[in-house]
Amino acid sequence: MQMNSNIKALDTGFVLRADKIEKHFANIEVLRGISLEAKRGDVISLIGASGSGKSTFLRCLNFLEIPTGGTVTIRGETHQASDALSRSRASKQKLRQLRREVGMVFQSFNLWPHMTAAENVMEGPVRVLKEPPKAARSRALDLLARVGLSERADYRPSQLSGGQQQRVAIARALAMNPDVLLFDEPTSALDPELVGEVLAVMTDLAKEGRTMLIVTHEIAFARDVSSKMIFLRKGLVEEEGPPRDLIASPKSEELQRFLARMRH
Amino acid sequence: MFTTTDYLPYLAQGIIASVALGGSSFVAAAALGLVLALIRDHSSGFVKLLIAIYISVFRALPELLTILLTYYGSIAFTRSVGIPDLSPFAAALLAFGVQIGSYACQIFSDAYRAVPRGLLEAAHAVGMPGYLINVRIAIPLMLRLAAPSLGSLLLVVIKLTAIASAIGVTELTRRAQIVSGATHDPLAAFGYAAAIYLAVSAILTIFQRRLETAKQL
């Protein structure tokens, strides 16, 4: 049965599938069974009020948060909570494999302050993918150029603006050649005038066919860039569909209210 | 009759033993503290409890008592087993390493907790295994955060070596005692010793400042 569902995931072209992800913290149910399928090139935006579980859900997809229940399937390999909790070599290996295939961009950038921009980008390729440092550096410089930061390669994060730091963080995630990119409110920690440069980079990535899952409050951006929008409420999918439909004609009262609030 | 100035070279050479004992004790303590801090952060309740007991015991014991207990304890042990005695220097190194290690462990634990979790998560997110996260991210950041406190600890350790004179290590303070016995001028002997301690401390402080400003980039 397990095997069959794996094969199906490959056949139907899903890059990533989350099945009934649940997360409880003590007695609080943060996620109450969220499922999602992303095909190659899909850009899925997750919206919802704070506390709706959207960031927790995203963090469950690469097991930074260990879900209480449910599975994540990527490249035909199914991962579940029991694997992540096991201390065995094989499950640790499997967990690292999952994380390698899923890139993550954080709200607070999380660049390593003791390394330059280029070193931040090279770290994963050199240490995890075992690329030779020279090759990794030249690839890092290319990636930094793509996010418009070739001149800042040898700067430390503390010498960069928030927008620049986030673009380095995007380059760092791309350096692992992930199948899916997760963005956890990538512009929420930025000054308003720096939001545009990060969204522009993300728009380019969407255009080149990257598979992306984006938790965001930037509704207009989400509408323009994503192929699918999911509205989460109280740990469940309340509404989902093409972003324009969702925004133009929200069915549920909650989404109507949420959108009205975001407009002001 | 010799004056204190005649003994100055003899006195000044004492700082070599002080700095050697202080420096090696500090290195041993820092290594012990770092390892215990890492174990503490990754282990279960029982091991955590053992480390907490270690820290509170050596925080409570006076250094002089620890050093006397270690020295006479080591002699009792080596005689009963029939192996050569520990030299006073080695006994002092052992006592300081273990005792100061408890301070260092606390400093490293605090520093580890001050490393922003997100920076470790970012390392997990690229698929780094645990030991690499420690070596590449956690420990370098921890050392940066711990550096000011470690610098102060080194100064304290160098001063503390004075009490190793109690078990016969002829470091600077011990030599000042010997000189004052010979010249009957304790004020001059101890005054010179104090000046030498101040000079060493000044040099280390300048060095530490340099390190910290260099690191800020």
UniProtKB/TrEMBL annotation, chain B:
Entry annotated with the keyword Transmembrane: yes
Ranges of residues in domain ABC transmembrane type-1: 15-208
Listed PROSITE patterns: ABC_TM1 (PS50928)
Keywords from the named record: Cell inner membrane, Cell membrane, Membrane, Transmembrane, Transmembrane helix, Transport
Transmembrane segments: 15-39, 51-74, 86-108, 145-167, 187-207
Topology in membrane: Multi-pass membrane protein
Localization, UniProt: Cell inner membrane; Cell membrane
GO MF entry, a single one: transmembrane transporter activity
Pfam families: BPD_transp_1 (PF00528)
Residue stretches in coiled coil: none
Gene3D superfamilies: MetI-like (1.10.3720.10)
GO terms for cellular component: ATP-binding cassette (ABC) transporter complex
UniProt keyword annotation of RNA-binding present: no
NCBIfam families, A to Z: HEQRo_perm_3TM (TIGR01726)
Annotated family: Belongs to the binding-protein-dependent transport system permease family. HisMQ subfamily.
Protein name, entry field: His/Glu/Gln/Arg/opine family amino acid ABC transporter permease subunit
Organism: Rhizobium giardinii
